[in-house]
Amino acid sequence: IKERIESQMQGLSPLYLAVDGTVVGVLGIEDPLKPGVREAIADLHALGVKHVVMLTGDSERTAERIAREAGVDEFKAELLPEDKYAYVERIKGEGRHVAMVGDGVNDAPVLARADIGVAMGAMGSDAAIEAADVVLMDDEPMQIAKAIHISRKCIGIVYQNIVFALAVKFACLVLVAIGAANMWAAIFADVGVMVLAVLNAIRALRVKNL
Q1: Are 197 and 161 in contact (CB under 8 A)?
Q2: Across the strands, what pairs with 22?
């Protein structure tokens, strides 16, 4: 009977009502997809995230429906917290880099084990926030892709500043060695490079909304 009821739920989570041990009714509970999730998954793929997996404790049918609506690449259903941890451990053992997004107490061990743990701060538990490396201060899924975009932009600016500073200083050393540089060149190699690096770093404050 249980299998027949669940097959008729069409992806809903069944809640059984019983009186004196006898089932008298069944309620189908739907956990609707959060607005913006499908767009957020698409943005992650566009940013180069190769594989998006949904790990959930929900039933197989419910997880399949949500995964299909969200557009994830793979899903794992009916998982306990230790099952999620074991899955991430296995993926890391294959040499992959893993980012985990969660907000519950059960997600805390996996957030700590992942290469990058991201907690949804607005509704996230204290345990998840403490275990995560990154805390998003609202529950908008689009913020995940935006955080990746911002971090890549910042890293790019850091690399630009490092390469520019080293190139100018080495050039100045060569010019000094051959006697073609004076005090003004040395000042530019020191103070001027610092000023230009700061001006370039200011670009990190300008983030285009995704």
Answers
A1: yes
A2: 19
